[in-house]
Specification:
The chain is an alpha+beta fold. 32% of the residues lie in helices and 16% in strands.
């Protein structure tokens, strides 16, 4: 099929007539080119955008105007024009096919290259990294623990209750260290200290007999002063917690005041504040009053406060003794590293 009009069967040329050999090569899409006028003749006017008016191939005309002069169309020229249009169409189709084939070939080549790249990456374990390679660190394995539970840490109270465990040195200077103590921001200056195994000799009233009856082993004393208030504290050591607790409950009288090192006699022939308590195998007693011998009443808050402070201090010292011994025992029983 062509765009140059219908293809007509070529009519054999009549004898006696040479005729024209058509219009030459077709122009455009199969439209025959209108030949120009012979030399010296006037150019006919053009119609429309410079194109000549269409010629009817079947109309009769003058020689050289598209016919044989007898009104018969030039079938050979029409067929040649149609064939030329078909050849042009085929050339365009072939060229378009070549371009399409090249485009498809390029796409296929690109796909093959991409596929080969992916296959190479798969063989090599993945794409080649382009950024900075950071070494990965294996996670630290979780620690393993023994199914056997470790023994509980020693209880400090065991070491201030059982005399077989409570073997650390015990002295007045060790129990009352330094030259002063501070409790809750309140400073107390330390006076004289003493230690004795004759427990009854450092007591007043009926406390001596109570200590002896419950097996008192020794008494350690110290005196502190603050703002005209003097306090003596005495710690009595017993063979068991039960004995210390009994001495606290049976206490009567009090620990004897200890004078010396700048502290005069106090709590003689006057009213003073006496208290008793215990922890483990230790019982502790306080006697507090005015250094000038003034009678203590329930309104004298500084005396009660001083008694509380010294009682708390002694309790802490005894408990710290048990804690240090428990820590030493735990360290000694720990397996070597």
């Amino acid at each position: 099929m062509s765009f140059g009009g219908p293809q007509w069967p070529q009519e054999p040329q009549q004898q006696g007539q040479q005729g024209q050999q058509g219009y030459g090569q077709p122009q455009g899409y199969g439209y025959p080119q209108q030949p120009g006028p012979p030399y010296g003749q006037q150019q006919p006017p053009q119609h429309g955008y410079g194109y000549p008016p269409p010629q009817d191939p079947f109309a009769g005309g003058q020689g050289g105007q598209g016919g044989h002069g007898d009104g018969t169309p030039d079938w050979g020229a029409l067929a040649a024009a149609s064939e030329a249009g078909g050849r042009r169409k085929r050339r365009l189709l072939i060229a378009g096919g070549v371009v399409a084939t090249l485009a498809v070939g390029a796409l296929v080549a690109t796909a093959v290259v991409a596929t080969n790249k992916k296959n190479d990456e798969a063989k090599n374990g993945g794409p080649t990294p382009t950024g900075t390679v950071t070494a990965t660190v294996s996670p630290t394995p979780a620690p393993t623990f023994s199914s056997v539970a470790p023994p509980p840490p020693p209880d400090p109270k065991d070491y201030i209750t059982d005399p077989k465990k409570d073997t650390a040195p015990l002295t007045a200077e060790g129990l009352y260290p330094g030259t002063k103590l501070t409790m809750f921001g309140r400073p107390y200056k330390k006076g004289a200290t003493s230690a004795t195994k004759n427990c009854a000799s450092v007591t007043a009233g009926g406390l001596g007999s109570v200590l002896q009856k419950n097996g008192c082993e020794r008494v350690l004393r110290a005196t502190y002063v603050k703002d005209g208030v003097a306090i003596t504290v005495g710690v009595a050591v017993f063979p068991s917690e039960k004995a210390a607790l009994a001495a606290k409950k049976q206490a009567t009288g009090g620990i004897a005041p200890l004078a010396g090192k700048g502290v005069g006699t106090f709590c003689h022939a006057t009213v003073c504040l006496r208290r008793a308590n215990s922890v483990g195998r230790y019982a502790y007693f306080t006697q507090a009053g005015f250094a000038n011998g003034k009678k203590v009443t329930t309104k004298d808050k500084p005396v009660f406060q001083a008694s509380d402070d010294l009682g708390t201090f002694v309790f802490n010292q005894i408990y710290a003794r048990g804690k240090s011994q428990a820590k030493a025992a735990a360290a000694a029983s720990a397996p070597p590293r």
